Amino acid sequence: MQFLADLVAQFGAWLWFAAAVALFVLETIVPGIHFLWFGVSAALVGLIALIIPLAWQWQLILFTVISVATLFWVRQSSRADVAKTDEPDLNIRGAQYIGRMVTVEDAITNGRGRVRVGDTIWPAQGEDALAGASVKVVGVNDTVLVVERME
Description:
By secondary structure, the protein is an alpha+beta fold. It contains 4 helices and 5 strands.
């Protein structure tokens, strides 16, 4: 414990900046984004310790509080339901085709068939339709396009 007190007394706030750099380096080496927020917290504590002289115990408490607050803030702001995107259906390929007119490739009988979307054949469900008929995609059920006949 005396070693830690002597180290903090010798380097003061600069020890936090060194810790921040070490954590940033770890972030580049180790996969994930965990060390980044601890590095930011260490840099903030170093900055605060330069402005306001604090005992090393209070600096450690401040580092803990800022680290926890930073982690909660990042976790809250990076949730999927909070993130805004200009392509909300990017990973739901079938949803991108809703409203599009497509051609029946294999006749839809008993509610099942296949339709051509561009150069791809998709399974489809909907009202019976003959091959070659135009249908409109009105929904998606997993990987099956839900279609309606066009009169």
